[in-house]
């Protein structure tokens, strides 16, 4: 005899209790603190801040702890929290030219004003598991020198001075806000960049890689990659001027891409741009490549039908919170739809006479 | 949960959603873009419906949530609990007692009445999406009433299978203009969409669209003169309450091909059993 499935409520409560226990793991092992995650898993924290669109290392660390290290789940927690925050104003645009750079490299010039700084990078590490780290995490102190306090001009400015790279016209139109307006097509570049900076790192990386392999190929040089802290200023209405309210770490990537010229316009390099919260350089470089690919129309290039050129395809599928939600919803019951398909398939088969539908022993 | 506003969303957001709802009611079947918010449940799990419910609920409302017709499926339980916690509204499983009903994939069997609101969770609001993936194109097609592609698709179904091979999310035409996706309800439920006394609101969170059917709207399921629309269901009475007129779930009861058919609308089935109706599998 069939008994209707009851007790969903109890099942959910029990599942949550079990989840909490699994999250904690073996209680013989010391519990992770938020500070440990923030300090020692900082690149995970950075990714969660970037794709969660909320710059708060402590909350990101909490989200990672709560999500058992599932970064997309952590990003989801941050997004859901972010959306409840009241919005009391907007900062002034940050000036990355004022960045206190921890890292600054250029692949286009051997040396340049402000110098190159490798900074804390994995780049030239040999990827050998460090078994010593398993036993002892203490590290010798890294050598230090005083920071150069001079200006760190953008590399693309040097090219711009000679007219070798397309002009990036100054524009102070307030950008559209993806989090307050529905995404609608066609999307202007400011909106595309906004979507890309919070886009899934893996998706953006895959698209960027596809442009390198010939799907809308447009060879990119990393004109400059810089990582460091920039001050955030906000105009306070009561004061009538902007004051510094804090600082955030950003990764900025400017690519110098192959040029096009025409009879009327001399050949010029073109630009791709990436700007992401935290130390997130894989994402920033990917973003710059995808940005460049999406600009085919304004640069008068051919649409070769590559995925990375297709703004609708890229922007509607780049958000991992949307994607994972819809993907995973197929776990939910679909009895009703399935039943209607079942009836239809049975009917079509019956009419085609392919088999005698076996009525169940009832 | 005093840290959050009544029904979770802040009043500004609710106002934005209510505007979209009003626009939707003014242009029945038209998909109104709205700035969907991240909700504390995943996209694809009813965030559109939840936002619409949050925008229409008042403290006096009595709220019912069904998924697949049932009040006790896990996601229905989860959404009902969410509003119990964030809005403190009274909830019910009785269709007739509810003032707002949020649903996924079904329309209750009991006819709804004036003053009730039925909120649908919608995964893909665009009926033309699987014929034309581009939003910029489909919006154009709607504004020009360019629905030839849809008719060709239905025609191809008939030429291939002898029938229109769509059994759920069956497209409808609203007041002679917009072709609308009724959400993945079985086509059995389609006839209930038209001339309904209640307000019907459709929320698609991930896709950022809201659309609506005001009471007593004309809603016609697409078909051809020689292949008229047919609402279908399993050809059995309910095993528990004996109902001949309700949509049925098929339940496998053993591993020897045994199965039984029961109402998918649990409230309808229970009310009938309470009134003394018995199906052949009833205890």
Report what the structure shows.
- The complex is a heterodimer of chains A (362) and B (283).
- Chain A is an alpha+beta fold.
- Chain A has three domains: 9-82, no CATH class; 96-120 and 149-324, no CATH class; 334-362.
- Chain A is 38% helix and 15% strand.
- Chain A has 13 helices and four strands.
- Chain A has helices at residues 8-24, 34-40, 42-52, 57-66, 71-82, 131-135, 155-161, 189-197, 201-212, 281-294, 311-317, 320-328, 335-352, and strands at residues 100-105, 220-236, 241-260, 268-277.
- In chain A, strands 1-2-3-4 form a four-stranded antiparallel beta sheet.
- In chain A, strand 2 (220-236) and strand 3 (241-260) form a beta hairpin.
- The longest helix of chain A has 18 residues, at 335-352.
- Chain A is globular and about 75 Å long.
- Mean pLDDT of chain A is 89; it is low at 1-5.
- With 283 residues, chain B is α/β, with parallel strands linked by helices.
- Helices cover 27% and strands 18% of the residues of chain B.
- Chain B contains seven helices and twelve strands.
- Chain B has helices at residues 11-26, 47-56, 74-86, 135-143, 148-161, 190-193, 266-274; strands at 32-33, 62-67, 90-91, 100-104, 117-121, 172-174, 178-180, 199-204, 209-213, 219-221, 248-252, 259-263.
- Chain B has a seven-stranded mixed beta sheet with strand order 1-9-8-5-4-2-3.
- In chain B, strand 2 (62-67), helix 3 and strand 3 form a beta-alpha-beta unit.
- Chain B is globular.
- The mean pLDDT of chain B is 93.
- At the A-B interface, helix 1, helix 5, helix 12 and helix 13 of A face helix 3, strand 11 and strand 12 of B.
């Amino acid at each position: 005899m069939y008994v209707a499935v009851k007790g969903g409520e109890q099942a959910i409560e029990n599942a949550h209790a079990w989840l909490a226990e699994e999250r904690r793991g073996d209680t013989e092992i010391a519990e992770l603190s938020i500070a440990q995650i923030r300090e020692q898993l900082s690149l995970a924290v950075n990714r969660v801040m970037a794709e969660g669109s909320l710059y708060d290392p402590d909350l990101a660390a909490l989200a990672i702890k709560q999500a058992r290290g599932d970064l997309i789940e952590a990003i989801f927690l941050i997004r859901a929290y972010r959306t409840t925050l009241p919005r009391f104003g907007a900062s002034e645009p940050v000036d990355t030219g004022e960045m206190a750079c921890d890292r600054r490299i250029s692949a286009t010039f051997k040396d340049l004003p402000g110098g190159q700084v490798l900074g804390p990078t994995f780049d030239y590490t040999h990827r050998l598991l460090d078994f010593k780290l398993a036993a002892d995490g203490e590290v010798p102190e890294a050598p230090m020198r005083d920071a150069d306090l001079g200006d760190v001009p953008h590399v693309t400015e040097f090219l711009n001075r000679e007219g070798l790279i397309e002009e990036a016209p100054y524009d102070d139109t307030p950008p559209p806000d993806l989090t307050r307006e529905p995404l609608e097509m066609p999307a202007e570049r400011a909106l595309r960049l906004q979507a890309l900076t919070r886009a899934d790192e893996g998706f953006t990386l895959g698209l960027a890689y596809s442009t390198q392999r010939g799907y809308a190929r447009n060879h990119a040089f990393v004109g400059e990659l810089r990582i460091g802290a920039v001050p955030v200023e906000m105009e306070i209405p009561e004061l009538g001027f902007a004051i510094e309210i804090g600082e955030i770490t950003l990764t900025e990537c400017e690519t110098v891409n192959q040029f096009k010229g025409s009879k009327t316009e001399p050949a010029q390099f073109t630009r791709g741009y990436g700007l992401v919260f935290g130390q997130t350089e894989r994402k920033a470089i990917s973003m710059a490549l995808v940005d460049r690919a999406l600009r085919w129309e304004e640069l008068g290039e051919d649409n070769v039908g590559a995925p990375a050129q297709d703004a609708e395809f890229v922007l509607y599928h780049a958000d991992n919170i949307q994607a994972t939600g819809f993907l995973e919803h197929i776990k939910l019951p679909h009895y009703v739809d399935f039943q209607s398909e079942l009836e239809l398939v049975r009917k079509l088969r019956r009419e085609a006479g392919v088999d005698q539908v076996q009525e169940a022993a009832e | 949960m005093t840290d959050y506003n009544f029904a979770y969303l802040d009043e500004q957001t609710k106002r934005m959603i209510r505007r979209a709802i009003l626009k939707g009611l003014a242009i029945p079947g038209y998909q109104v873009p709205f700035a969907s918010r991240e909700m504390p449940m995943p996209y694809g799990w009813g965030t559109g419906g939840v936002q619409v419910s949050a925008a229409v609920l008042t403290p006096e409302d009595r709220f019912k949530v069904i998924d697949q017709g049932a009040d006790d499926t896990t996601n229905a339980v989860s959404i009902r609990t969410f509003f119990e916690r964030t809005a403190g509204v009274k909830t019910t499983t009785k269709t007739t007692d509810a003032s707002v009903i949020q649903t996924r994939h079904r329309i209750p069997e009991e006819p709804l009445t004036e003053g009730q609101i039925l909120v649908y969770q919608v995964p893909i609001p665009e009926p033309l999406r699987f014929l034309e993936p581009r939003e910029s194109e489909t919006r154009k097609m709607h504004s020009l009433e360019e629905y030839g592609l849809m008719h060709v698709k239905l025609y191809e179904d008939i030429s291939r299978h002898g029938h229109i091979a769509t059994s759920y999310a069956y497209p409808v035409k609203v007041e002679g203009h917009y072709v609308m996706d009724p959400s993945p309800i079985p086509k059995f439920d389609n006839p209930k969409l038209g001339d309904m006394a209640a307000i019907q609101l459709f929320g698609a969170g991930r896709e950022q669209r809201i659309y609506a059917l005001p009471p007593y709207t004309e809603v016609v399921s697409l078909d051809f003169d020689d292949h008229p629309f047919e609402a279908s269901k399993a050809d059995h009475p309910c095993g528990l309450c004996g109902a001949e007129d309700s949509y049925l779930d098929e339940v496998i009861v053993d591993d020897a091909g045994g199965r039984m058919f029961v109402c998918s609308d649990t409230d309808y089935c229970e009310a009938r059993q309470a009134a003394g109706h018995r199906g052949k599998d009833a205890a």
